[in-house]
Design brief:
There is one protein chain. The chain folds into 2 domains: 146 residues, Beta-Lactamase, CATH 3.30.450; 120 residues, no CATH class. The protein has 13 helices and 6 strands. With 345 residues, the chain is of the alpha+beta class. Helices cover 37% and strands 12% of the residues. Strands 1-3-2-6-5-4 form a 6-stranded mixed β-sheet, with helices on both faces. The longest helix is centred in the first third of the chain and has 16 residues. 42% of the residues are buried. It comes from Tolypothrix tenuis PCC 7101. GO terms for molecular function: beta-lactamase activity. It holds the Pfam family Beta-lactamase2. This is Beta-lactamase class A catalytic domain-containing protein. InterPro entries: Beta-lactam/transpept-like, Beta-lactam_cat, Beta-lactam_class-A.
Length: 345
Amino acid sequence: MMPPEIPNFPPTSIVLPVVNQAVLLSKPTFQTQSNNSDLTYNVSKPTIFKESEKLQSTINEIIKILTSQRLPKNKFSITILDVNKREIAGYQQKQPRFPASVAKMFWMVYSYSQINNGIWLESKFDKLLISMIKQSDNNAASDIIDLVTHTQSTQNVGNIYYENWLEKRNIMNKFFQQAGYEKINISQKTFPITHKKMYEPQGFDLKMRGNPKYSIKNTITTQQAARLLYEIYTGQAISPAYSKKMANLLSIEPTTRIEKKDQQDSNDFNPVHGYFSESLPIDVYVGAKGGWTSSSRQEAAYIATKDGKTAYILVVFAEDRAYALDEKIFPKIAQLVFQRMTNRR
């Protein structure tokens, strides 16, 4: 039996316009007079959401599940955001945590900001963005970071060069921090980067991490990740047209969900098995970016029913090896949240 057909874009009350390709193609490849440090994110302040006791009761249920399964709560953060009602709840949702590949959502938004400002021709990024978001490819992510920050991963060649390099690499942090993403750090690349034969940080990428014992890593809160998804899926991030493009990049198609649900090949990126969409009905829209390392598991997702009456954002960051090894906990959390959200219309 074939699964029910669902739209490519989530059903919400927001109708995003079709991108005018002619306008995009008229932009120059690169304008050397443009100053990346002058770019500012167009959403200067976060939307205010009302705290919800009902949503918080769902959070409390999840924390009880973690306790029953002896999973560490102190390493766990979660945010639930009801898009239609503009309500929010969470647990340690303002605690900065390592996002792994969830950081790629932010790199995507920054890339489109430069494209929108005429710094780059969009076609230069099309394949790279597909690889970075759809396949979570670190090589593509590395190339994108090099392009948008005008830096290269290289060996240490002296402090005078390093300080200039570091200032450029940190431009992405400044871009979001000025818009209220407090203390966010997304300046570190994800490894391994196989096409550069860099299997771990080296050179300037290593130096910027500081003391190896207390290495500086990317840090994002689940609330910040939820905010970014909200801004993308309500057409606010960069522009309505680019928001739609980003949402489509994040979309996990029904065919992918069917093919990947039971696939357990660790050498192949799998956005489904061990993640939220594994346990959700096939006709429910899911747009998500997952992360995984040997000591952590993360996911940020926009989830909506076909009629749009239920639309919410679920973000979980879990910084412990127990979560990395547990392929059932994220689907279990997603299933519980979906049941509670569809019952509260």
